[in-house]
Amino acid sequence: MKKIAYALILGALSLPAFATPATAGSAIASACMSSARGAAAPSLCSCIQNVADSVLSPAEQVLGAQIFLEPHKSQEIRASANRANAAHAAFWEKWRVFGASAAKHCQ
Questions:
Q1: Angle between the 72-82 and 86-105 helix axes, to the nearest 10 degrees?
Q2: Which of 3, 17, 81, 96, by CA, is between 20 and 30 Å from 72?
Q3: How many angstroms separate the CA atoms of 20 and 59, rounded?
Q4: Is the predicted pLDDT of residue 75 greater than 70, yes or no?
Q5: Phi then psi dihedrals of residue 3, to 5 deg
Q6: Contact call for residues 14 and 35 (beta carbons, < 8 A)
Q7: What is the pLDDT of residue 45?
């Protein structure tokens, strides 16, 4: 089941999610529900959103939604985090914690 949660998280990176600050609290769940697996498992998407709410700020969820829209952006953020961009380094660490936590708690 952990593999499914990880697959949903990673798969969501390539799915469209239109998030604004007003919808940041549901950005992750919306992307999850857009996937075939997520649509079949709304409780899993809800769990993943709950983890996002506990780990990521609304602004970080919006940045995460941008990754969903443009998967290459994750590599840009990761690369800039490695070049001493403090904001991206902090986000990237929290994004990794989010992914690991969702995989652990959302089975």
A1: 120
A2: 3
A3: 9
A4: yes
A5: -65, -35
A6: no
A7: 84
pTM listed for this prediction: 0.68
- Structure-block tokens of residue 17: 């999610």
Is the four-CA dihedral 34, 38, 40, 44 of positive or negative sign?
negative
Q: With 0-12 CB in 10 A as exposed, 13-18 as middle and 19+ as buried, what is 69? A: middle
Enter the tokens of residue 106. Answer: 């959302």
b/e code 19-37 from CB counts within 10 Å (16+ = b): beeeebebbbbbbbbbbeb
CA 58 to chain centre: 12
Burial 70-98 (b: 16+ CB within 10 A, else e): eeeebeebeeebeeeeeebbebbebbeeb
Give the pLDDT mean for 32-53. 84
pLDDT tens digits along 91-100: 999 999 999 9
Per residue, what are the HEC states of 68-104? HHCCHHHHHHHHHHHCCCHHHHHHHHHHHHHHHHHHH
